[in-house]
Amino acid sequence: MYHQSKHSLRHYFLAHSIVVRTDQPIKQLLARPDMTGRMLKWSLELSEFEIFFESRKALKAQVLADFIAEMTTSSTPDKNKWTIFVDGSSNPQGSGAGIILESGEGVLIEVSLELAFPTTNNQAEYEAFLAGLRCINRRGFSIPLLKCVEESEVASILGEIHEGINGQHIGGRSLARKALRAGFYWPTMQTDAKEHVKKCDKCQRHGDMHLAPPNKLKTLSSPWPFSWWGMDLLGPFPTAAGQNKYLIVAVDYFTKWIEAEPLANITTFNVLRFFKRNILARFGIPQVVVTDNGTQFTDKKVREFMAKIGTTQHFTSVEHPQTNGQAEAANRVILRGLKRRLDETKGKWTEELHSVLWSYRTTPHSTTGETPFRLTYGTEAVIPVETGASSFRTEVPLEGEDNHEMLREELDLLEELRDGAALREATLKQKIAKRHDKKVIKREFDVGTLVLRRNQKDSREGKLAANWEGPYRVRAKTENGAYYLEDLYGKEIPRPWNAEKLKQYYS
């Protein structure tokens, strides 16, 4: 550099005095009498110029010179240096580019690109060059320099940040950002972070409960009165007279009529006795009976009896089944009525049961707009308040032929009344289903898929209990969104489970 300046700027150096400010002993070195070799040559070259050496006083004046001196690299090979070889081409079928990166240590990286837009050959090569620059750049927008991580190190870095001594099982986006702030970078870090979190066993077991329904609402409508019945069991209650602790409930899907009876024990014999006495003997043989998967309803004797009389038995999936919502609604009505009628004497619930049933049967239902009593018998029942405070029906009592004539008229109008109630119920169910289906996030599982099941909350673990348990394997599935499960050793889990209580497990 000096030799070039000497020949091109020599006349400037000869015409002017030169002042060199430095903290190095250059003047003393050039004035030594015992100089030899290169130092003697430099002394002779500079002797023709008028050069004055001064000690450096102000720091600001030397900032630029110090920066150049300190940041000038040596000519030795840099191991961090990368060489880029690129090529690109274009034809009517498309365009692409190839990139080869070679590091100072001899590491070769080959990258091929398919360009999704029309280009010329030159444009394809430019795109290849830009892509190559992006591949070798350790520089970020939020942090000046980032370390490019090799693929073999990705799992250990994510594992330490996610569940290590300083980890708290954060989400995928936060995990990627934390790795970035720690000074690491690789091209697929956000995708890898999400996959790592998705497959974390503890994150899956302690994940939040599903709020969105997994399937569309399936409503059931009975074609005529007393053809579809739902049956369920309640209890245990406080022990009442006759050692009764349980309650069996049946509800008609059309009229919403409820039959209920206290039981001392839940047995197959008691279930069949209730069915014969309270349904068959009063309302005839039903077309369908909907029950859960309780052992009392799935017993061989019960199924054989239903098949013998020609009644189809539908079983619902475990844990809040949609298809048995009518029986659950009846259970809530009975429980709410009993709680409000009982004070400290909880053991008298069997004595209050008939009052609760009578109140329900004579109250208009929200779906039909009519009382179950009127839809069943064609007329309204006289309730005690009408006898205490006289009403039109009690002021003018009818006797003999007049009474029979009015009852026949009520029966003639009963079909129209039932048609109107069925239409109102269907309209309401359509509105409910439409509102419900807007929230659906479809969840289906194929046979062989690993799933977690909603935990039953072991009281020993309390608030620290995991929300999900498993994993289990899907053994079979039904048409209404229920699944049969087995553990990882092939042992079958009893009863089907609704998709609402399951979620996929990633291993």
Q: Report, as a whole number of angstroms, the end-to-end distance.
A: 64 Å
The overall strand count is 17
What is the subunit organization of this protein? Answer: single chain
Helix content: 40-55%
Determine Rg (CA atoms, Å).
44 Å
Strands of the widest sheet, in order across it, are: 10-9-8-11-12
The fraction of residues assigned to DSSP E strands is 15-25%
Which runs of at least 5 residues are low in confidence (pLDDT < 50)?
A: 319-323
Give the helices and strands, then pairings.
Elements: H1 2-15, E1 18-22, H2 26-30, H3 38-46, E2 51-55, H4 63-71, E3 82-91, E4 94-103, E5 108-115, H5 121-136, E6 147-148, H6 151-163, H7 172-181, E7 184-185, H8 189-198, H9 201-205, E8 228-234, E9 246-252, E10 258-263, H10 268-283, E11 288-291, H11 295-298, H12 300-309, E12 312-315, H13 325-341, H14 349-361, H15 372-377, H16 384-388, H17 392-395, H18 400-412, H19 414-437, E13 450-454, E14 468-477, E15 482-486, E16 497-498, E17 502-504
Parallel strand pairs: 1-2, 6-7, 8-11, 11-12
Antiparallel strand pairs: 3-4, 4-5, 8-9, 9-10, 13-14, 13-17, 14-15, 15-16
